[in-house]
Amino acid sequence: MGESPDTMDDYMRMSERTARESLYTLSRGVVETFGDMYLRKPSLHDLQELYAAHEERHGFPGMIGTWKGQYASGHHRSPSLVLEAVASQDLWIWHAFFGVAGSNNDVNVLDQSPIFDDLLNGKAPDAPFMVNGNEYKYGYYLTDGIYLQYSTFVKAFHHPVEERDKIFKRRQEGARKDV
């Protein structure tokens, strides 16, 4: 989470060394157990399966996943923890970021995401899909309004007026709630 191990001394009631060793052991176990399956970039086959699953469930062709972020506990009025995730229908987490709210907003978190490194560097795999007879080269993510204007982000309308825009906003927000 970008925190030093000694920040957890009081909260976890353990020494800095024990906290560091425990975190290392847990991380190593997760990587050894799940690394081959889940700690890899999606293949073209993976992306095509995601397209099919999201289109069947939500009606959005070419959708890779949804971005969801910021958590506010019941006694805080504003977000107290940032938990951003992109997950598929089988709970394959493509991206996760945990941190304290404040300077960690959606844009800062995106800058730290390995998901978009390849896309921004022109190295993302082509994963074409068709909509209304038009072929698109890359899939997209459903997001809220703060994200940058990338072609891979589809945002909901802020104040939809037309009925079709209202329907899209409801369906888009419903899909984002799955995360």
Verbal overview:
By secondary structure, the chain is α/β, with parallel strands linked by helices. It contains six helices and seven strands. A five-stranded mixed beta sheet has the order 3-2-1-6-7. The protein has a two-stranded antiparallel ribbon with strand order 4-5. It has two domains: 1-40; 41-67 and 107-177, no CATH class.
Question: Which of globular, elongated, flat, extended, rod-shaped describes the shape?
Answer: globular
**How many distinct helices?**
6
Q: Could you tell me how far the N terminus lies from the C terminus, measured between alpha carbons in angstroms?
A: 20 Å
* Largest sheet, spatial ordering of strands: 3-2-1-6-7
Order of helix and strand elements from N to C terminus: HHHEEEHHEEEEH
The biggest sheet amounts to: 5 strands, mixed
Poorly predicted runs of 5 or more residues: none
- The number of distinct β-strands equals 7
Report the radius of gyration as a whole number of Å.
19 Å
- What is the SS-derived class? alpha/beta
The proportion of residues forming helix, as a percent range, comes to: 25-40%
The share of residues in extended strands comes to 15-25%
Overall tally of structural domains: 2
The chain-level mean pLDDT equals 75
